[in-house]
Amino acid sequence: MLMPAPDTNTIAQKARLAAALAELLPPESVIADPIALKAYESDGLTAYRQSPLLVTLPRTTAEVSAVLRFCAENKVKVVPRGAGTSLSGGALPLADGVVLGLGKLNKILEIDLENRCAVVQPGVQNLAISNAVATAGFYYAPDPSSQIACTIGGNVAENSGGVHCLKYGLTTNNLLGLEVVLINGEVVRFGGKHLDAGGYDLMGVMTGSEGLLGVVTEVTVRLLKRPETARALVAGFPSSEQAGAAVAAVIGAGIIPAGMEMMDRPAIHAAEDFVHADYPLDAEALLIVELDGPAVECNHLLTSVTEIVRANGATSLRVSESEAERLKIWAGRKAAFPAVGRISPDYYCMDGTIPRRRLPEVLQRMAELSKKYELRVANVFHAGDGNLHPLVLYDANKPGELERAEHFGADILRLCVEVGGVLTGEHGVGVEKRDLMPEMFTELDLDQQIRLKCAFDPDQLLNPGKVFPNLHRCAELGRMHVRGGALPHPELPRF
């Protein structure tokens, strides 16, 4: 994985930069020791590692602003970092860059139940928001599997989803406002507690921007009332193709479950051994469907879904009869990623999205790729919205296996695009999918995206080396041909 060549002049100034930053922050909030820096050398994509030049841990928006302004003035690159749970290498450090850790901005600033929102700092854990409002009967809907650890700032950066995003939306659908610090230190606000903001949707632009445009320092999230009833159905199938067909049939019937998840045999066994959720171990594929709402509606939909999954070949079926049983069913799914670590020394977690109707075909072709690369794959899907999470199993200690895993993963993502899908559903592009961007976007498309980055970060100091395979200088994209001293189309206004 090639990253931008480090600037030797910046590296040579490490001591000066550390001393200057220690004047802007408490000394303990600047980390320069090589041993201490190792804690930041990777995020959740541990296949790629790089020790940063320095790490800063600001406590307030003002301190974030001071760090960014200093880095901009000294042309030092900055890599924003939340909890480090990113699975795309979005927080991979740079040898000549400062990691801006946001873990100390971890306060819930306001809970406003009358307006059904909460104002939180970016270092607040996803699950902590729901826990804070649970006694009042509210919750925050997006629930990534890592919600016990991942932070809301990182969720905004990656536009994270979760098992319940099928009905309730991704992070972007549950945000009301953002406070963002730009690379020059300017603090700006997008949105607020009101339902919709006027003008350009800059909050939408910032959500999912992977730390390339600015640093989020405050988030206003939408709170939802907990549904009256929620029940989960677990169905086992003799093949992944039949389970995929059942997913398409449920959605085709006009039913939108709160969540609809799928796991194949390796993932089922790993999760069951880890959590003991009473999954059917004789099944080749498992489908979890959750229905919520008023009890009468929930029961009616459960009857309909039961008929659909049986018609599509389900060989076992169980419906939760208590809240504890429902939570246990989901505990197995949410623990699937760490559970797979019990059956393989390493795994490479992919994240592509496809049209639901192509799921059986894609599963079959992934099985063929598994044979081609001689690597196992465990599949865990947000099946309802076509978001796939194939886990390519490999052993980094065996020469060549990481490279085979990378090629296997790249082919899976190419397959997603080929069948009408996209490269990522919620994990972001980072470095993992960076070099595959031309598979989905033309050069013109990418240039337009880079122009947006240039508008926010003209010197390209924020998280460089991520998302774009070939990052042109902003001046190159702004060139205009002048013939005979005359601009083309002189009748058009210039800005």
State the gist of this model:
This protein is of the alpha+beta class.
Write the layout of secondary structure elements.
Elements: H1 8-12, H2 14-24, E1 30-31, H3 34-37, E2 54-56, H4 61-73, E3 77-81, E4 97-101, E5 108-112, E6 117-120, H5 126-133, E7 138-139, H6 152-158, H7 165-168, E8 175-181, E9 187-191, H8 202-206, E10 215-222, E11 224-225, E12 229-237, H9 240-252, E13 259-264, H10 265-275, E14 285-293, H11 295-311, E15 316-319, H12 323-334, H13 336-340, E16 346-349, E17 352-353, H14 359-373, E18 377-382, E19 387-394, H15 401-418, H16 437-440, H17 443-456, H18 474-477
Parallel strand pairs: 2-4, 3-4
Antiparallel strand pairs: 1-2, 5-6, 6-10, 7-11, 8-9, 8-10, 12-14, 12-15, 13-14, 13-18, 16-19, 17-19, 18-19
Helix pairs in contact: 9-11, 9-14, 10-12, 14-15
